[in-house]
Amino acid sequence: MSESRPSSLPAAAPFWLSVVMVPLVALAAWRGGWWWALIPAYAWYLTTALDGLLGLNEANADPETGADQLFWHRAVTIVWFPLQFAAIFGGIWYVQATGHLSGWEKLGLFFGIGVISGSIGIVYAHELLHQKTPLERWLGDLLLASVLYSHFRTEHLLVHHSWVSTPRDAVSARYNEGFYSFFWRVLTQGPRSAWRAETRFLARAGRRPWDRRNPFWRYAALQGAMLALAVGLGGWTGLALFLFQAFIAVWQLELTNYVEHYGLSRKHLGGGRYEPVRPHHSWNASHTATNWLLINLQRHSDHHTKPDRRFPLLQTYAEDDAPQLPLGYPAMTFVAMVPPFWRRRMNPRVRAWRRRFYPEIVDWTPYNTGELPLPRNAL
């Protein structure tokens, strides 16, 4: 199926759903109480309910559409950093200056802000860091710095896209691995993995780890500036609120990472060689409303096929070519937080996937435990 006129404002308008959450932050900061709950209710429950009403969208835009024809789609990702910046730091200043919110009301507000900076901000950062324009890449860096997760850029570009669904990729969740053990593994391994990848990349050009071209200098400077601003606007309470929203954002990101590749493994060909990435190495969801909110992140197989393809042009795949989730990502991340329920829902799907694509593999134990050799020449 094909969509028409992907460049038009009406076609782009549904992808601006995220902007509605900014006035919800202002409302929650002003009114206090339980008003903050409107933010996750909008992001998680309303969009999931709309998925049930609107069903699946399996139409594809013309992938050859030029970036110059996608102005309104690109615009929402470009304007997002100022909006998120205002929500985080405006929120810190406001709650400290007015003093009308109790401690739990502040935590509720910054939980909601963390939902925004994780569910929206990091998703938009992911889109921006894959593009080639300096403005978009800088905006991606700023969004990641605002949740203290700048290393994600290196880990995602240099490790994840090369070694997804192999033991080298920390964010490829293994079969039967619960979310909480996965989360701890990613938090502890991810920064080290990113540093190792970046320094080896520099070494190939004959540069040392402390070379000024190492982006970790930029990561440190941007994150340090965000921390200093939080302290300057709100003191130690401001810093604590900033750190809390950053943790909530990272939790949201890694829940999504957990869902995207759970139990899906590339076949080991021997000697540390793995098959190329295929569409069947990512879980997909064609649910309409959550793809609007997450700017087509759920068309994940096509993103791994063409990483720099802009989000409105990402293609959906039939179930014969790529595995499909029963619900959109927001609902599936809720399931993931209850590991027994997750395994009950997803393990049969993984086993069916294995029978379909790899009937020749008899023993999956090394894949389940991550004991296969690391890929040759892996960064």
From TrEMBL:
Topology within the bilayer: Multi-pass membrane protein
Ranges annotated as spanning the membrane: 12-30, 36-54, 75-95, 107-125, 216-248, 325-342
Intracellular or extracellular location(s): Cell inner membrane
GO BP, sorted A to Z: lipid metabolic process
Domain Fatty acid desaturase: 107-334
GO molecular function: metal ion binding; monooxygenase activity
Alphabetized InterPro entries for the sequence: AlkB/XylM, FA_desaturase_dom
Keywords on record: Cell inner membrane, Cell membrane, Iron, Membrane, Metal-binding, Monooxygenase, Oxidoreductase, Transmembrane, Transmembrane helix
GO cellular component term, pick one: plasma membrane
Keyword set includes Cell inner membrane: yes
Family indicated by similarity: Belongs to the fatty acid desaturase type 1 family. AlkB subfamily.
Identification of the protein by name: Alkane 1-monooxygenase
Species name: Paracoccus tibetensis
